[in-house]
Amino acid sequence: MSTTTHLLYLHGFRSSPNSAKARKMAEIVQAGHPGVTWWCPQLHASPRQAIDELLAGVSAWPRERMAIMGSSLGGFYAAWLAQQLGCPAVLLNPAVHPARDLAGYIGEHPAWHDPSQKVFFEAAYVQELADLEAKIQPLQPHPPKTLAVIAKGDEVLDWREMLACHESGRVRLVEGSDHALSDFDLYLPEILEFLRLA
Length: 198
Known about the structure:
- The chain is of the alpha/beta class.
- The chain has helices spanning 20-32, 47-57, 73-85, 98-102, 123-135, 159-166, 188-195; strands spanning 6-10, 37-39, 66-71, 89-92, 107-110, 118-121, 146-151, 170-174.
- The chain has a single domain (6-195), classed as Rossmann fold.
- It contains 7 helices and 8 strands; from the N terminus they run βαβαβαβαββαβαβα.
């Protein structure tokens, strides 16, 4: 794998570019890899619109020199995009069946990092997620270039489902921890080694 010159970070449901993990990665890129193009957009609540905006945003990026990181729902998007674009991805407690998991969250919710901001999740978005899930190829001719960091202590997603979905790639299975990976710094050396930032 060549060195990474372009890094895309995707936050989770109701999250933002102000998440602890996103801010930490932004600091690492800025301080140690100033030549790397960093993009951590606020994702649209509509999965289809989010994916369309992301594909447009990276359309000029070099496929062989870009990588994606994503957490939770952002991890699902990262896995989806990595498969479509053929680039490496780091998946942090990635959602596996988001259409099923988010079907109960239709309506308005406060954003995690700014409760004054609202996220409105429409019923149509569940079908958009189902459409994206249907496009993921379960069996690929080559092992995916992914590193999945999966916490057994995740209180939101089932680690067994995450592992079953991503075990054909590289996996760091964590005893304990939580959905937010509050101990994120412990996994940074392996993540950075995998990403090979320029």
